C-alpha cells in the first residue's frame, strides 16, 4: 500500500475520471470525493493499476449491493469489512462496456464499402453486441435514416455529410475476439454488463437490455484470446463465409500497450493493402494517433472518438454513441 504522500497518480486519475463522468451525477460525485479522500485512495492504490479505474471499482461496489447515492455509503463499503469481497470482484471482472450505439458510427462506415456481403470480425468484442448492425434501424438526426431491419431504432444527432447507406449489406459472419468474452445467454455475465452502465444513463441501460435480446436470438462466434494472437484465425473464418471480411474495433485498442497498438496498426495496414479485409477503427484520439492526426478538423467536447476507415479518418464520435460528426470530403465509397 502506498504511503499517504505518494498518492499523486491515483488522485490525478480520479480527478480525470470525475471529469469524464460528468454525465452521471452520482459517479461524478463519487470520483470527485475519492480523489480528495487519502484513506480510500490508499486502499485503491493497492490494486493493480489497471484495476484502479473508477468505472470498475464503482460497478463492483454496486454488484455488492451499493445503491447510487451518498459518497459516505461508498466510502463505508470500501473501508469496511466487505472490502475483501468487493476487491475479489474487481480482480475477477473487467470493464467491458458493450455499447451498441456505436453501430450508428459503424454502419455508415460499412456503407462506404459497397453493397456486397460483408463478414464481420470484431476485436475486443465483449459480448459481441456490435456484430449485428443489420438488426437495427437508424435515425441520424440531421443527416438521414435507414429503415427496414424490423428491429429497434438507434437514434443519434449527426452533423456533416454522413454517407447514409441506402440499405444494409448481407452479413455472412459475425466473429469476435475477446480476452474474456461475455456470454449473452449467461445471466451473471449480462447482469455485470448492465451494472457497467453508469447511474442515470437509463436510456443506455434500456438499449443494452434490448441489444442483449437481439443478440441472444443468434449468438455470435466469439474466440477467447488476445486480438493480435487470434486475428488471422478470425479472418479465415470470416473469409470462409463468402463475404468481404471487415475487421472493426471500438473502445478496445485502448486496452493494448503502446507496442501492441503499433503492431495492430501495422498489421491492419498490411492486410488492407493486400486486399485481405477492410478496417474500421473507432477509438480515442490518443490510441492510434496517426489516424486521428489525419482528420481535417479536431475533436471537440461532444465528438472525441476518431472514426477511421481503412486507416483514413472520416469523422468523430461521442464515445458512448451520443453524437456523430462526419468530416467533409471523406463521404465517398471506397469499396
Ligand atoms: C470497452 S469494451 C468494448 C466492447 C465493444 N468493442 C464495444 O464497443 O461495445 C473493450 C473490450 O476489449 C477487450 N479486450 C481488451 N484487451 C484485449 C485484447 N488484448 N484482446 C482481445 N480483447 C481485448 C475487453 O475484454 C473488453 O471486452
Question: Would you mind describing this structure in some detail?
Answer:
- It contains 12 helices and 11 strands.
- The chain folds into 2 domains: about 5-90, no CATH class; about 100-325, Rossmann fold (3-Layer(aba) Sandwich), CATH 3.40.50.
- By secondary structure, it is of the alpha/beta class.
- The protein has helices at about 10-20, 25-35, 40-45, 55-65, 70-80, 85-90, 105-110, 185-195, 200-215, 225-240, 260-275, 290, and strands spanning about 120-125, 135-140, 145, 155-160, 170-180, 220-225, 245-250, 280-285, 305-310, 310-315, 325.
- A hairpin with a 2-residue loop joins strand 9 and strand 10.
- Helices cover about 40% and strands about 20% of the residues.
- Strands 3-2-4-11-10-9-8-7-1-5-6 form an 11-stranded mixed beta sheet, with helices on both faces.
- It starts with 7 loop residues before the first helix and ends in a 9-residue tail after the last strand.
- It binds S-adenosylmethionine.
